[in-house]
Amino acid sequence: MKSRVTSTQDYAKQVLEKGSLGRELLVVANQQSAGYGKLGRTFYSPANAGIYMTIVLPHKTPREIQQSGLFTTGVGVAVLNALQEFYPALPFQLKWLNDIYLFGRKIGGILCESVYQMQEHSYCYVTGIGLNINVKQFPPSLKILQRRLRIEE
């Protein structure tokens, strides 16, 4: 576990750049200074307020990577099931395909990327999971963005 990283996705990719990965890797951080989601959107990740992690799963064949949509869906369902098991009274929802909602507000998401390892001639799933389950106060810039998104929907 790292105390603070730019993002767990970036940290995992740096590990992959340094050499081949023969087995799974889990990167967990208490805080991210530059967490990101789909399309490079920022993901607010303050200290002691959420779960910020990336799981790297190596694969040997390109066929497994071609099934990445199914993989993302499976991770989303698994995260939702875990949240519902630990917090059975809370109405968590999975918004297709990778956003986690609670009481109509997005509290997190899943980002699946594939990375090619040159040395091994193999692929890896690099899967980030970010959940802001304990954030007391969001910065004003996110509140303004939230209001704009609701108007546009």
Describe the structure.
The protein has about 150 residues and is an alpha+beta fold. The protein is built from four helices and seven strands. It has helices at about 10-20, 60-65, 70-85, 140-150, and strands at about 1-5, 25-30, 50-60, 90-95, 100, 105-115, 120-130. The protein has a seven-stranded mixed sheet with strand order 1-2-3-7-6-5-4, sandwiched between helices. It is globular, with a radius of gyration of 16 Å.
A few lines on this structure:
With 153 residues, the protein is of the alpha+beta class. It has helices at residues 8-18, 62-66, 68-86, 140-152, and strands spanning 2-5, 25-32, 51-59, 92-95, 99-102, 105-117, 122-131.
Total beta strands:
7
Q: Sheet with the most strands?
A: 7 strands, mixed
Chain-averaged pLDDT = 80
Strand content: 25-35%
| Global structural class | alpha+beta
Q: Which strand order does the major sheet show?
A: 1-2-3-7-6-5-4
Q: Work out the radius of gyration.
A: 16 Å
Number of DSSP helical runs: 4
What share of residues is helical?
25-40%
Approximate shape: globular
State the separation between the terminal residues, measured CA to CA: 38 Å
- What's the SSE pattern? EHEEHHEEEEH
Oligomer: single chain
Low-confidence stretches: 144-153
Descriptive keywords:
153 residues; 7 strands; alpha+beta; 34% strand; 4 helices; 31% helix; 7-stranded mixed β-sheet
List the helices and strands and how they pair.
Blueprint lengths: L1 E4 L2 H11 L6 E8 L18 E9 L2 H5 L1 H19 L5 E4 L3 E4 L2 E13 L4 E10 L8 H13 L1
